[in-house]
Automatic annotation (TrEMBL):
Domain HTH LytTR-type intervals: 173-243
Protein name in the entry: LytTR family transcriptional regulator DNA-binding domain-containing protein
Membrane-crossing segments per the record: 9-31, 43-66, 78-97, 117-141
Record key words, sorted: DNA-binding, Membrane, Transmembrane, Transmembrane helix
Sample GO molecular function, one term: DNA binding
Pfam families for this protein: LytTR
Organism of provenance: Sphingobacterium arenae
UniProt cross-references to PROSITE patterns, sorted A to Z: HTH_LYTTR
Amino acid sequence: MRLFFLKRILLFFLQRWNWLKVAFYSIYFLFLQISNNGALSFIDFVVITFVFFVAIGVIELCQYALGLLFSERRYIKASLVLGGSYMMLAALGYYVIHGNENHMSTFMWNTEVEASWSAFLGGFNRFYWTFFKYGIILFLFKQMLHSIRSRKVPRDDMNSGKYTDLAQENRTLTLKSGITTYMVNIFRIVYLEVKDEITTVYLIDGPPLEVKMSLTKFFKQLPKNRFVRIHDSWVVALPYIARETKGYIYMNHYNDKPLKLGKPERFSEYKKWKDSNKIS
């Protein structure tokens, strides 16, 4: 019973992750305004709001870069995102504060301190690192929720009597991605995506695997009581479906990647499964 409620609580948090972040940002914005409530003019309020949105941008860029780094193992792109965002914000900040006389420069900069690059970067680095740490905390918290919930899924499937033939066989697939061959357990596959005859395998952990094989051929190797085709471009694992919203499916571990449903008459197996499980 406790595992049931834990699973439902984790699912609630993961499905509403973006709304939870909006709530966190809103509370933090209110905190900023309250802490600076001493005789602030309207222009001061605008400056604080602008700085707040820059801070949110740093947090979101951090989470995106960490996802590229650890979830997709795209190290070069992650480095370019972090390095490029840092340099762009630093150059823009220096120009806004020291490029000409404006209210933001007088509000944020002590005129007794020399307006040099070294002095500016000292303050900017503290600002950037502060909100970069918030991004790390949010990323780790989301990964922790995913990790806890993913360990329950196969066990729940087996306890409920579903997919027992797969549990007994411990089915694995031999996949060649590039020059490397992988042995992948089907319980780890969340969904498949095809583009130009290259099928990308998205797993519950680790980087996606690109396999030179058509989705139709790949789908024939998979058990039909666990995987269904929902579109010309996608095959999904039924246990990892999080929700369906406005013609899109959202998968656990990939809640930020909506998968568009194809026509029900062409992909009827998903509709049959949805009707039998009373999914709305």
